[in-house]
Amino acid sequence: MMSFKPKRIPIRVGHRYVAILNETSAEKLDVRASERIDLFVGKKELTAIVDITDNKELKDNQIGLFAETWDKLGVTSRNTIKVKVAPKPQADQHIKEKLEGERLTAKEMDIIVKDIVNDDLSDIEMTYFVAGCFTRGLSDRETADLTKAIVKHGGKLTFRHKIVMDKHCIGGVPGNRTTMLVVPMITALGYVMPKTSSRAITSPSGTADTMEVVANVKNDVDTLKKIAKKAGGFITWGGGVDLAAADDKLIRVRYPLKLDPQGMLLASIMAKKYSVSSNNVIIDIPMGDQGKVKTKKEANVLKKRFLRIAKLLGMKMKVVITSADQPVGYGIGPLFEVEDIMKILKNEPGAPEDLKKKSIMLVTELLYLTGKYKFKYQAKKEARAVLETGKAWKQFQKIVKAQGKKRLPKRGEHTFVVKAKKAGTIKSIHNKLIANIARTAGAPQDKGAGIIIHKKIGDIIKKGEPLYTVYTENKTRITYVKKLQYRKAYTIK
Length: 493
What we know:
Layout: E1 2-9, E2 18-22, H1 23-29, E3 36-41, E4 44-53, E5 62-66, H2 67-73, E6 81-85, H3 91-99, H4 106-117, H5 123-136, H6 140-152, E7 165-169, H7 179-188, E8 193-197, H8 207-211, H9 221-231, E9 233-237, H10 245-254, H11 262-274, E10 280-287, H12 296-312, E11 316-323, E12 331-332, H13 334-345, H14 353-369, H15 376-388, H16 391-403, E13 414-419, E14 424-429, H17 431-440, E15 450-453, E16 460-461, E17 466-472, H18 475-482, E18 490-492
């Protein structure tokens, strides 16, 4: 064990405790970069990741502490810190076993997740774990065990109700904002539906981005419990709730190479459901050339895995395979998606029928899943009625008020109308290009930016008629949109 004087490094690294030694001190301690050291100040103890510098400003008797480490130890420049090399985390051995193709037990998976949550693993070690899961795969049992471990070391919302509903869509379809209809419809019928949603990564808007147009989506666990008690459910940003901390850390290391090991992706989804005690869940898998899942075979493999893992977790689940051929609704971007939602809830003319129909289907399946309906048409009748009588609209307002209502922003004042170059029938719409155009316009950061679609597949169009309109809050963004292949978003024949 060696003693050092602390030197504060006024930088926050954001996600773990880091200490810096100069090359001489590291050699004396026999420690290398990314290994761990135990730091002792009085009765306080902390394990930190080592970084090594050749900067001569850090003397042999000094140890540099980044802001998080300094604050956690509560040291001052007058303190002396005792340092010794820390043993390697037990998780390292199990990560190596996964890389070698072995199946991990529930206990081994728990050890890895615990070390991830406690920041005892470096990014390199977590990346190796992701790589092992990617190259060697995760069995259904491993996936279920990973799900349980993520929730165990994160947190869980519990409800006294026997039936707690939830839904998830694997994404890839612009405008597919069914959650904001399903939650008020289900809760208006007296069921509990606590929905944690994501923000956009590569899409023009995530559910949390769209909901944020009308209500606050940053809530802690205690606040969510109060909201659920008042309104029966909520639509909140999952990143603002510490319910699946390990998953958030794994997503961060997966992101640079866009690695999505199927088992890890499934565990990520299921952990979000399991963490809010959901036991009646519907999964939407959009399938088609324009979606993430291209073929029926691929969709069915994913469907079967979802169902097997749900059974291992004690969940009742329905998986539906839907179309990914074109955007759902007319609006693409936070504000425009909210406008679609409100038109449907208010039963206004011109509301997007495809979004309404899909939401009714999802609610029907959720209701039928409860076992309270002898025939599915009875569940569908109730789903349609709660929407068309205005009960779902009142419930939506109740949820918005409970979460903290916001004033609607204005549409972007700068527009660009894309018109048909010839007459014919709409044969296809390029989802990824539509999404890219909406993001280039400023969505989701600019809430009033995005696209309104005027024509869908199968529609007949005349030359010069509008296909879609782009809205931006910044005029310069129109120039950027025009640099894209915006005319290829539609195929007319």
